[in-house]
Amino acid sequence: MSREQAAAAMERQARACRHLAAGLYADLLVRAAADVRAGGPCADAVEGYADAPVDDVVSLRLLGGVHALVLTGRAPELARFYPSAGGAYRPEDADAAWVAFRAVVAAERDTVRGWLPRPPQTNEVGRANLLLAGLLHAVAETGRRSVRLLELGASAGLNLRADRFRVTSGDFAWGPVDSPVLLPDAWRDGAPGWLRDAARVLPALDVVERLGCDLNPLDPGSADGALALRAYLWPEHTARAARLAGALDLAARVPAHVVTAGAADFLRGIRPEPGTLTVVWHSVMRQYVPADEWAQVTDELARLAAAATPDAPVAHLLFEPHPVDKQDHCELRARLGAGPERLLAEAHPHGLPAWTV
Asked: Under DSSP, is residue 350 helix (H, G, I), strand (E, B) or coil?
């Protein structure tokens, strides 16, 4: 990745951050792009990062590395602009925040560069809003309440505990009332009728297996894993941080297993099981999988679908970016067995709120 490519990627990510109510990061990235072009500390930090694709990921890795320094008390001057560390940010603070940010990158070059090989992993808990909706739909359609949850690109496996989250939207609610993870205002115009019907007959689910895969799984019970998840959240999104804190608490009490494997290799070992609904789901991960491997994933999903029976059904749920407008929203799609894929809902990339199409 050349300097110009890195700067352009930062500008693209700045626009995305602005669109998603992350003004601090938007303002910092605009200035970081100029700093890269001028050969400043940000250029030095990302120099030689040849394994990064020409996209926005390098921006998120740079921001994550600096955010980790803020969260661990190693950047106090910058922390005063980060709500995640008790600070506050206003648009008029942009220049002062940038001076502090640039100074941290310069002073902590090696630490920041150490984050660049780490893939951004927020393990976004809000996306469970869509995954749960698809899951209730699949259970209601197949009549199987015993569920195996299998997640591709599971990161720390937080959403493998999604059935323990509580979703609310107006007069609609589903999930344990004492859950530490609350997904409020989940639907823009109220929960759709098909979801209400499913939730009415399915007040709880029997999840018998929670298994995922990831090329770089994180341990939510370790200090390093928890810091990585917190650092990749955007500092102004305090509601997301609260959901993450609740999910980390839940992960300590509800076991799930994430293996180190690519999606295709993981699926090769999966077979339908009698008496149980096998659910394969993923959210905002397909874009990180090379096209040739995704073709293998598609083949494995087709194999699983063909092997499904009424007694051993299979569902594929995906919450992935819209194929044209990838920054604006994602689509929840569901396929039961070898049946047609159905578009159930759409939502912003972080999952809240959702809306029907």
From this structure: coil
